[in-house]
Amino acid sequence: MTEGSRSSDSKVQGEGDYDAARRYRESVSEFVNKGEVEKLAQKAQPLSAKDAREMALAEDSARVRSKGDDPADVGIMYPHEKSSET
């Protein structure tokens, strides 16, 4: 299907599906308003020092390549290494 031949009943509008985005926002608001966030956060706490360390390592690993990092800028991801522009 080409760009010009899209049917008018398409759920995708421009850059995304606005109906899906609205449903998501409503679901998040409903979840937060239920007041169970704190209870679930406490339930997710690590049960041991080993669990805490594994969770911290997983978080660090995820942050290394977060969307905001520029792989070309070594200084952001690895502060102990010098950037190629110095």
3D architecture notes:
This protein is mostly helical and 86 residues long. It has a domain at 16-65. It has helices at residues 18-33, 37-43, 49-64, 74-77. The termini are far apart. The model is unreliable at 1-7 (pLDDT under 50).
Topology summary:
Blueprint (H helix, E strand, L loop, with lengths): L17 H16 L3 H7 L5 H16 L9 H4 L9
Label this structure with key terms:
4 helices, 86 residues, disordered N terminus, mainly alpha
Summarize model confidence as the mean pLDDT: 75
Biggest β-sheet, characterized? none
How far is the first residue's CA from the last residue's CA? 49 Å
Please compute the radius of gyration using only Cα atoms: 21 Å
Q: What's the overall geometry?
A: flat
Q: Nutshell version of this structure?
A:
The protein is an all-alpha fold and 86 residues long.
